[in-house]
Amino acid sequence: MEREVNKNERFVTQITPKSEDFSKWYVEIIRRAELADYAPIKGMMVIRPYGYAIWENIQYLLDKRIKDTGHSNAYFPLFIPESFLEKETEHLEGFAPEVAWVTQGGKEELEERLAVRPTSEAIIGNMYAKWIKSWRDLPVLINQWANIVRWEKVTRPFLRTTEFLWQEGHTVHETLEEAEKETLMILSLYKEFVESELAIPVVSGSKTERERFAGASETYAIEALMSDGKALQMGTSHNLGQHFSKVFNIRFEDKNQNLQYAWQTSWGVSTRLVGALIMSHGDDSGLKLPPQVAPVQIVIVPISIGDWKKNVLPKARDIETQLKQEGLRVEMDDREEFTPGWKFSEWEMKGVPLRIEIGPRDIKENKVLVVRRDTREKESIGLDVLSQKAPEILKNIQRSMFKEGLKFQLENTRKVQSYEDLKSILESKKGFIKAYWCGHTTCEEKIKEETMATIRVVPLEQDKQKAQGKCVCCGKDSDAMVYFAKAY
Amino acid sequence: MEREVNKNERFVTQITPKSEDFSKWYVEIIRRAELADYAPIKGMMVIRPYGYAIWENIQYLLDKRIKDTGHSNAYFPLFIPESFLEKETEHLEGFAPEVAWVTQGGKEELEERLAVRPTSEAIIGNMYAKWIKSWRDLPVLINQWANIVRWEKVTRPFLRTTEFLWQEGHTVHETLEEAEKETLMILSLYKEFVESELAIPVVSGSKTERERFAGASETYAIEALMSDGKALQMGTSHNLGQHFSKVFNIRFEDKNQNLQYAWQTSWGVSTRLVGALIMSHGDDSGLKLPPQVAPVQIVIVPISIGDWKKNVLPKARDIETQLKQEGLRVEMDDREEFTPGWKFSEWEMKGVPLRIEIGPRDIKENKVLVVRRDTREKESIGLDVLSQKAPEILKNIQRSMFKEGLKFQLENTRKVQSYEDLKSILESKKGFIKAYWCGHTTCEEKIKEETMATIRVVPLEQDKQKAQGKCVCCGKDSDAMVYFAKAY
User: Fold this and answer.
1) Owning domain of residue B457
2) Cβ contact, residue pair A74, B52, below 8 Å
3) What gap in Å lies between CA A304 and CA A308, rounded to an integer?
């Protein structure tokens, strides 16, 4: 892996403490852990090998879930003719300000501008109209892994970039009920995926009309609290109703030989999830990766004392081989030009969940020192049980990182009755605020204007007993408790 | 999977015989096997789930090899500023006629046009210059899976499309020797991959100066004969020398503290490989897929006689479960609206290597009928040994498809001494022609002009004993036997 730091400088000295400047801390981790770099094009980034390896693990684990629920992958064109976007006014208005336009191909000026896909509903809808004729062709359950371009004004690596990578599912169904079922199934698949693999607890629910995807009849989302108390949208699942099927003429003959417009959904998560990992788990020493998505789960650092290459390294290599046989992702750091201390800092910066230290004395005593990245707990483990214990410790780390996250989320979720409390908490403490809301956009917008907070989700399961109160803004009766937060 | 054929029509009746019109046969297979469809943008295609699943298998098998040889994946921007391409005249001239240009972002006119990447040497070179400082940072071994856009005039699905998917490796080394070693290692990796996984025999060697990649000091390629006798370039590996490192200023401090320009390589294969699978193995009944990359390796068709759902289906499902436990990709075709005959044709069209038929009589006799797609051989196999025998048969199919291919290649490779023979064979028989060539572009161009054939490769290992003859064109002394062919 290439490095751009001065080798003589101590590794972590330059990182800004998280508490001092969260944004600066965030981009410094990205640079120092070599997750990504700024590209020489406005708002674009390069995902470096270490960052991309995290994305590959995310892809692998999510793709399996997408396929296990009956979906297949496909690939649709990068370019969408302008006229396709124009067919759907709402959708166009939502995306037009963000579209990058191709106007020339080779030497020729194009007759019609081509949008570099900001999302693929239009181009996919056009193909579905061709493919779908009868109820027998349904459901269509297709997903695509692709790059997306949105001409963003303000960008930040992984969170909002001109180009990003994502998966977008696009499904077609016979009935509204089926489409709704799919939308909610994906919502809970996303929740389970993010919580169990990324160790990030989320709240889920529907978006308000104001926050809905351009063209959807219902948008659901999962949202997580980052460690600075701001919310981040982690994934969305849209019930598109018949909106696009009417625009693109996706019709099928039903079982009674009647032509019907089909019902659709779309859903996606993106490389933003890598940003969420940094902001949820990281600390002043750098990244902290959940073992499930860590490119390196265990790093072995031989202690370089005396003739370590002869006395320590062979044993360290044995351990490496053993652990790899357990299916673990292991890295051996046998570089000569760095001290063990330097290596410890570097691998902490990279968020490797578990470090194994082995020196001459350990070898004599037939044990190693094992250090957890999340809690920094140290434990001496006998060599005879190491390959059995290491996977267990990784599982514990995964579990305890999620628990930590959940504790943080609960501590930073506050129920509020009055508008005054809402405002004062948002000024001082951030986090989620649970409050009643009457359901009107006017109240939602007033709150946003005065506090910068938005309604992140309306939870699907409201406590029917308790969910009757007064709107925190206008005081009218309400039966919906919602989550407010300042958000990325 | 969605279908667009009329369900009452017999499945295969519409396909044009391969011998009658190869091009028509090719695109009909793509449509009928639902590999891809034309997109509503000039020269672009949609890769449908079945076609994409083949690509996913290719990706999986090749990615493993790329990683096992020490490379990591990363992701670089889709857009390349025009000034970057202009830095390298040769490269720009090679690609400028094929570039799609982004000139507008949102509402604003861009100050500088952005190329949608036609290949990534320029943007990656720019980043490498930033990352590489010292010999300690080398080698850099990075690969990228990405979409590529080239504004092609004449397109054909999978073979040449305005957008395609590929992997592109970009490596940096301390010395020319190391770069050359990498270039050749990848060439042989590609050859081994294509021959063992796609069951397509290839010839490999260097390209002539005329056919070289724009900016490379040496280009190597693997080439295969399609079943119409035309050659297809299957993958290329370029030694870039210091060409791009001088343009993009990629320098490193060597072990003696001298600044040196780095040595680079780049290499790639693309979705064109799916086209190669069709054209190498397909026949008048459709696709014929090698088991290693077939999305479905075995299809089970229960014979629908009498009360088959009660008498046959449960046993068929048992078999499905057993075979899946062996790690095989198995599909059960229990659709009610189609006859077994229809299903047979459909799965033959889709190239599934092995079909298992099971009817009431088979169940009584505790056996099934197994039919190979490649040879159409039928074999009765006892249920007790099926899950042991099926993987063996698949391995045999893989081997025998490669052997068939090799036989075809050898039968269609002809040694030629005179220019007259070269011309007459190219007119009547196609295939590879091995002939001596003096090494001069004038002869190469004369042959191309008069026969449409080009030099596909100059084999690396020339038979030193025999490799002394006269140039087939000018008659001058030559020590290089080369492969000529008409090519896609």
Assistant:
1) 413-485
2) yes
3) 5
